[in-house]
Structures are given as C-alpha cells and as structure tokens.
Amino acid sequence: MKKIILSAIVLFGCSHLIIAQVDSAFVTVNVSAENGFLVQNNNYNQCIPFNRNEKVSVAAGKSTLKLVTKDFEDSQVRVNLDVNEEKPLTFNQKFITENSAKKELSTYPRCFWDANIIILTDSDSKVTFEGQDYKSGVRFKTDPSNTVEASIVNDDFTRKLNFAATDELQVISNYYRPDRSLVLRRSFLPGYAQITKQQKLKGYLFGTVSAGLGAAFVYYNIQIISGTNEYRTIEQRYSTATDPAEILTLIEKADMKRDKIESDKRKRNLSLLSFVAVYGLNIFDALKPPKLGFRHTPFDIDPYVDFDRDLIPKATIKISLK
Predict the structure, then answer these.
(1) Do 216 and 271 contact (CB within 8 A), yes or no?
(2) pTM flag (> 0.85)
(3) Taking Cα atoms as reference points, which of 71, 53, 139, 59 lies closest to residue 109?
(4) N or C: which terminus of the chain has fewer CB atoms within 10 Å of its end residue's CB?
(5) Residues 67-87: pLDDT tens digits?
C-alpha cells in the first residue's frame, strides 16, 4: 500500500514537472540594468527575477512581458512564444533621473508587496476569509482574475463580499453603523466610541483631555474645601484675639485665603464647563458616521524603491486613513 501511494506521489510530481516544461519558453534579456523582474500579463504576484543576458523561463503563448527594474522606466513588449522556444528580447529602457518620478514611471516595488487586496472593517466586525476569522480587516495576496469570497460578520448580520481580483492594489472598506443606543453607551467613556470607529488618535485625545479636566475639577474642589476650613479657623482665632498686631495679621491672612478660594472656584468652574463642552463634543463626534466606508480610502505605499531586494524581501503596504 505504501509503495502504491509513493508511486502515485512521484507520478503526480513528474506530471506537473512535464507540464511546466511543456508550457514553457525561454527568453534572454539584454538591457542596461543588471537585474530586475519580468512581469507577464501584469501578474505582479509572480514576478520573474532575471539577471542581464541570463536565460529565463516564461509561459509560452501570446502575452505581454513587462520589464521592471529599480532605476529605469517600465518597458514592455508583446511576444508570441512557442513551447521550448528560446528568444532574445531587447527593451528600450530610459533611466529615471528624478527620484520623485519613480512612483509614476516604475512599478518595481510591486514585486515586493506582501498583499494586493486589503479588506478594512470597523473593530466591531470580523472578516471571515478561507475559513479563518480576522478582526478589523485582513490583507492577502492572490492572482489577478481570481474570484475572492469573504464574509463581514457583525452580531447577527452577515454581508458576503464577492469580487474579482485585479492587477492593482484593492482596498475594500466596509463599515456597519452600530445602533444609536450602543454608540451613546460607548460615549459614556470619552474617546471609546472613536476608538471603535478606528479613529484611535481622536479617541485617545478625547480620553486624555477629559481625564485632565476631570482631575483639575477634583483638585480645585479639594483646594476649595481645604481653604474654606482654614478660613473658618482664622475667623475663630480672630473672634478671640485681643492683641492688635495679631488681629491685623489674621485680617491679612483671611483676605489672602478668601482671594485664593475665589480663584480656585473660578478655576474649578472653568474646568467643569470645559469638561462638559468636551464631553458634549465627544458625544456629537461619536454619533457622526466614520469616513471609512463612505468614501474612497487613500493609501500610501512605504517603503518605495530604495532598498536591496536581497536584504528586504517584501515592501510592506502601509495604509494611511485620512
């Protein structure tokens, strides 16, 4: 039985090897760049590395071969290659003189992307993709023209995503608005509702400012109570004092303490009013729908070109929500 299984595995592997050989053709690249990638039919998920004047295996048949290198503009040719045919290719390359132009003229970094589809959701939802659950989004890499199926689950509601992958980076944004009463309950703790909308910086700002104003209110209230007790003590001493010098001193201390109490009251009231204003703004902002899911989500790609592909095998896609 083991021999039969082993023979089947060997036969399966050999058949795939034969198919790969039968469907392949070979090209040599004569260009200015020392190395880079060949991209066949815009499939950046399977970039074919090459060295100058080295024979490279590509898929046979009609296709478009794009040459992408680090410091040169993209260049492409249309080819029709027979099986096992060997053909030299010459590309018209133009050197990119300005670093700022590399984003528009070279797609070299795309061969290092670790994902070409990113699904973003709010923190209440989870994404189910290929049998696994992801919180607040998922990123993955798939070939162009593949059909992508995923589910967005929020409580008892499920939304099915079904779309075709392309050769471009796709950012799929999705947001389900929680129930209004739930948003109001979350607003009880300043900043928490914003954090659940993936607006973490704003949420931390609301939380920090509210905590600071609340602490200031408590501090000045304690100072008022303490100052009031001291003022009453001065009054009691004044009522029993007989020495003129002591009476004058007590009057001066009482005036200073009264001024301090009034100043602390103004600061306490200002802290309270500011806290109420920030708290109200926190609730108002929490009830606003987040931008995510209601408009196009801009993104940045970082790093771009200036790296050694042997040292950094992947260029991470950084998503910046604005």
Answers:
(1) yes
(2) no
(3) 71
(4) N
(5) 888 888 888 888 898 888 888
Residue 134 lies in a domain: yes
Q: Quick check: 153 and 101 in contact, CB under 8 A?
A: no
What's the number of domains the chain is made of? 3
Strand-strand pairing, 55-59 and 170-173? unpaired
pLDDT of residue 177: 61
One domain, residues 121 and 108? no
One DSSP character per residue, 126-149 reads EEEETTEEEES-EEE---TTPEEE
Q: What is the pLDDT of residues 210-261, one digit of tens each?
A: 999 999 999 999 999 998 999 899 888 888 888 888 888 888 888 898 999 9
> Residues 135, 138, 143, CA angle at the centre, nearest 5°?
160
Q: Same domain, yes or no, for 277 and 191?
A: yes
Distances (CA, A) of 306 to 37, 102, 259: 16, 10, 65
Q: Are 292 and 173 in contact (CB under 8 A)?
A: yes
> At which of 151, 173, 195 does a domain end?
173
CATH of residue 55? 2.60.40.2070
pLDDT at residue number 265: 93
Q: With a cut of 50, which residues of the chain have pLDDT below it?
A: 1-22, 292-322
Residue range of the domain that includes 126? 117-173
pLDDT recorded at residue 98: 82
Structural domain contains residue 194: yes
Report the pLDDT value the prediction gives residue 290, as an integer from 0 to 100: 61
| Other Cβ atoms within 10 Å of 104 Cβ, number | 10
If asked whether residues 6 and 105 sit together in one domain, one would say yes
Cβ(192)–Cβ(210) below 8 Å: no
How far is 217 from 134, CA to CA, in rounded Å?
42
Beta bridge partners of 226: none
Asked, for residue 305, whether it belongs to a domain, the answer is: no
Q: What sections of the chain are H helices per DSSP?
A: 2-22, 102-105, 180-187, 192-196, 200-240, 244-287
